[in-house]
Amino acid sequence: MTQHAAEHLHPLTDSAQGYLLGLRVMTEGGATTMVSALARQMGVSTQAASEMIGRLTADGLVAMGPERELSLTDAGRTAAETIFRRHSLLEWLLIKVIGLGWAESDEEAGRLQGSISPRVEAAIADLLGHPPTCPHGNPIDAEAARTRPKGIRLSEVEPGAEVTIFRITEMAEEDRELLEYLEAQDLVPGAHATVVEVSVGRDSLTIDGPRGRGSLGLRPASLIRVLPGRADVGLFHHVPDRAPVRSA
Predict the structure, then answer these.
(1) Which pLDDT tens digit goes with each residue over 191-237?
(2) Per-residue DSSP letter, 205
(3) How far is it, in rounded angstroms, from Cα 35 to Cα 23?
């Protein structure tokens, strides 16, 4: 993390950090977005989003283009990546050590991510065995993003194919009900499943997973990345035994 980003990170409110994380997802790969789309993503009014963007722009973390399109500045992306890394480490800690569920750990991590110091962050990473992803399989930093497979959308898998759940994307993480459903069905990174049926007419996908047969809408299924067949178990992080692991 650069000194400029470090100076900004701790004064940021929880809300401001949430906006940076939202923009991180929506501007992935150099894309831009508009205030209205960001407001929908954050579940707030356009006016509220505009006010926050104004503050983040004044802080040098967000840039607004000639068509009022939004993007993260270099400092903003560095800050967002730092927040995401801390959020991910806290989720691992809350799920595997404390024993919280996916949705609850996401909320708690959001409250804590701006409060931990770099020293505590490093200690948590060491305790957890330096995970390359968040618990949902999303790369924890740019290096992990470059080296890990991209996966394919679950919604694009042909019926009858066996797959390994690889990544519950950041967009899917915003849906608490979806997270709770996937966790209840044990459709987590590393789990094996078979696609039974894909119906465009019914906008649904039927899948046999670790907990039996279930279904997903095609849009939620498009937010889940899978790998064909039985993927290499080394792609999926396991917290070292030295941490007092508890199941969620």
Answers:
(1) 999 999 999 999 999 999 999 999 999 999 999 999 999 999 999 99
(2) E
(3) 10
Q: Which amino acid is residue 245, in one-letter code?
A: V
Q: What kind and span of H or E run contains 120?
A: helix 118-128
Which pair of structure tokens corresponds to residue 20? Answer: 């940076």
Length of the chain: 248
The pLDDT score that the predictor gives to residue 8 is 47
In angstroms, what CA-CA distances link 190 with 65, 75, 123, 156? 41, 34, 26, 19
Distance, CA of 17 to CA of 10 (rounded, Å): 10
The pLDDT tens digits of the residues spanning 118-171 come to 999 999 999 999 999 999 999 998 889 899 999 999 999 999 999 999 999 988
Domains of the chain (ranges plus CATH)?
Answer: 3-78 (1.10.10.10), 83-146 (1.10.10.10), 152-234 (2.30.30.90)
Q: What is the pTM of this model?
A: 0.85
List Cβ neighbours of 126 (8 Å cut-off, separation of 6 or more).
Answer: none
Cα separation, 20 vs 53, whole angstroms: 9
Residue 214 three-state SS: strand
